[in-house]
Amino acid sequence: MAVFTAVSLDDLSQWIKQFPLGRALALQGISSGIDNSNFFLTTERGEFVLTIFENLGIKQLPFYVQLMRHLAERGIPVPAPVPNADGELVVTLQGKPAIIVSRLSGASQMDPQPVHCAEVGRMLARMHLAGQDFEMTQPNLRGLDWVGATAPQVLPFLSEAEAALLRTEVAFQSEFAATAGYAALARGPVHADLFRNNVMFEGERLTGCFDFYFAGVDTWLFDVAVTVNDWCIDLATGALDEARVRALLDAYHGARPFTPEERTAWQPLLRAAALRFWLSRLYDFHLPRAAELLTPHDPTHFERILRERIERTAPELPV
Ligand SMILES: Nc1ncnc2c1ncn2[C@@H]1O[C@H](COP(=O)(O)OP(=O)(O)O)[C@@H](O)[C@H]1O
Ligand SMILES: N[C@@H](CCOP(=O)(O)O)C(=O)O
């Protein structure tokens, strides 16, 4: 259950008046999600999602929330934050930062086919292009600096084989990040967590994506790699499914052509994306937050993906 802060319709009756949404008519806690308290909110003006932030600090929130607004204004199907009468997007509720955003229609597609992967690839490329003139900046807080700081914390908990893999991969990624080829990669705001559970579909039509709370400025290719490592794999083995990889990459390339530098960096970045989630899952597994209510994600899933990407060459980026 991912409603950590209890809120009732009564609690909202005064608070909601600062928004141009009319009266709150219904409020329903959303059980999925692991970081925040989320509610479906019905008001006289329509359907919304209310999020109360449990862990993110008020300093980081403007980047995520303004990015959503920026993308929504440019026609990318993401939740649009609703400003209050003072133009503020983040306001306090029950002593914590909170936002109201538009509710996306549809449902997650947890068994994606090439047609769904193509939709995701096209939308991701459009999102990258639309983010180019976003003025705020914040690094990817799960980037290589975080990897370097976090790996030593989990190493004492690992078997010899896991520790060897982690050490070798961190060294490989650090070396790669120091190359001119890496420096030449296109960058901008990236979602950085575009997994199956963060995208909505109605049939074969993508209706939107959400959960921007890992977003930051990083290489666009890293975002593509994160997305391919979730959407285009056999979940049991981590192996890439060529038809889905092709569909996603071709659709992305159609909207924002890949560069020669990106073609060179593709295999290392698939590994970087696997390492990032292996490490965060290892951290959550071995060093859970106090009062953690939920079962942590299985780290071995991303260990398998990382080993796969090291052992087998993935389909190349389209030319
Ligand atoms: N704008 C939205 N429109 C529709 N559903 C949403 C929206 N935002 C969140 N949800 C629903 O809430 C759930 C939890 O949201 P999520 O952002 O994943 O939470 P957390 O940040 O806690 O992981 C999602 O799985 C989705 O069903
Ligand atoms: N996608 C990450 C965890 C992030 O959780 P989310 O529910 O906020 O997407 C993983 O699979 O490790």
From TrEMBL:
Q: Which GO terms describe its biological process?
A: threonine biosynthetic process
Residue spans crossing the bilayer: none
Please provide the record's keywords in A-Z order.
Amino-acid biosynthesis, ATP-binding, Kinase, Nucleotide-binding, Threonine biosynthesis, Transferase
What is its pathway? Answer: Amino-acid biosynthesis; L-threonine biosynthesis; L-threonine from L-aspartate: step 4/5
Q: If you read the UniProt record, what top EC class would you report for this enzyme, in one word?
A: transferase
Record-linked CDD domains: HomoserineK_II (cd05153)
Instruction: State a single Gene Ontology molecular function.
Output: ATP binding
Q: Which family does it belong to?
A: Belongs to the pseudomonas-type ThrB family.
Catalytic activity, EC: 2.7.1.39
Q: Which Pfam families match?
A: APH (PF01636)
Gene from which the chain derives: thrB
Cross-referenced InterPro entries = Aminoglycoside_PTrfase, Homoserine_kinase_II, Kinase-like_dom_sf, Pseudomonas-type_ThrB
Reactions catalysed, as given in the entry: L-homoserine + ATP = O-phospho-L-homoserine + ADP + H(+)
Q: Which domain of life is it from?
A: Bacteria
Name this polypeptide is given: Homoserine kinase
Q: Which organism is it from?
A: Telluria aromaticivorans
